[in-house]
Amino acid sequence: MEGFGFSVLKERHINYDANDKSIAEYIAEREPSFRTCIECGCCSATCTTGAFTNFSLRELQILLKRGENEIAREQISKCMLCGKCILVCPRGVNTRNVILLAREAFRKLMKNEV
Amino acid sequence: MKSEGKKRIWAEYQKEIADDHYFYVRSCIRQSFFPGSEQFFLHFLGDVLGKDIYENPSHTTCTGIGYHADVVPLSTIMTVIARHYALMKDAGYRHIVISCVTSFGIYTEIFETWKHFPEELEKTREYLYKATGREFDLPESMTHTSDIIYKFRNEIADRAKYRLVNHETGEPLNIVEHIGCHYSKMFPKYGVGGAEFPNVLGGMIEAWGGNVIDYPERRHCCGFGFRQYLVQANRGYSLSNTTKKFSSMKPYKPDLVLTNCPGCTMFMDKWQYTIREMEGTVYGENGESIPVLTYEELAGLVMGYNPWDLGLQYHMVQSEPLLRKLGIEYDPADKFKTKDGRQMPLPQNLINA
Lengths: 114, 353
Fold this sequence. Notes:
heterodimer; A: Fumarate Reductase Iron-sulfur Protein, Chain B, domain 2; 7 helices; B: alpha/beta; Glutathione S-transferase Yfyf (Class Pi), Chain A, domain 2; Rossmann fold; 2 domains; 4-stranded parallel sheet; 46% helix; 8% strand
């Protein structure tokens, strides 16, 4: 039925135990620098895509580590792989490789190969 | 020593409830939406127990909803409450009985304000005198109507025609008790059992033979929250609260929700309709919603009063499934008839009917 002008808000609790962290584990295994990210946001600050869309690599890292994969999957295709984020990262995270591995993992997840 | 200590601590959770000579103040929501509740309360105390209970027709709203909506200033609401105390003084009463949990919260908040800021009390005395020429005394006791029914729960049990058991299986009914936040969460010492062990409704259910359900979100807000529902765009907050609460109680298969706050009764009743319309979700068994009653309505059912005289038909979620479980006989044809037998217009979209 339409016309209420309001709706039931979705539950915002994050159940860490129930979430699927296989994508994050897949990335961390192949690109260990993924673990060293401190979520400072330098990557997002320099990101060209982020300047024109709501894409944020920092947010993506957090989402993947929390296992909130659905939102991450929507976001990840926006990256143009320019690599500016690698240049500014104070922890030396190979962010470009993180994106590539994440895309690979999502593709494999579709085929139940992760 | 240990036992004495426990007794002393437990004594802090008890509440002195006056035995007689009550000055009654009505509730805006209750007399509009559940008129049978207040009528039963006055009838039970006055006619059945023979207590002295008085209400003054000059009594007004406490303006609590306006206060919580930021349209009534604190000094104004304190003067309104002071006027009610003046009416009580004129009538010669010392024990105030408050029908609404919002009002109860207002009365307790103002009482505590005056205690800690005596200059506010003096200012209020001055405002009231200048405006109306009235003077007032502070009450000896402040009691909510549910406290009184709790106090006389065994007297009701003695007069019970029905027990809160499924008459077919003999099993006690599973009942959710929901206590209004403004009853005991703001100033715990004014509630039976305080904020931690509020037993005002649980005590009634147990005395009348039912089973109290303990579920994860038992003390969660019902969703009423003034600022949440007054603005349409914010009502999703209110509805989401109610959804969370009902989702939490659903696995325990409640037969009934019992509340002591008019706002909780209204919202837990009417939001069930809204959630069903929006999402198609129902929280009772067999595709039915869960009836939400006030303690007087339940007391009336237990004592064998006609459900339509108690006003159960004015709820959004109808009580027929509960009446069938209790084995209460009722005539569906009388549901929307006046006392003199005239047929009233029939409402549409009633749930469980």
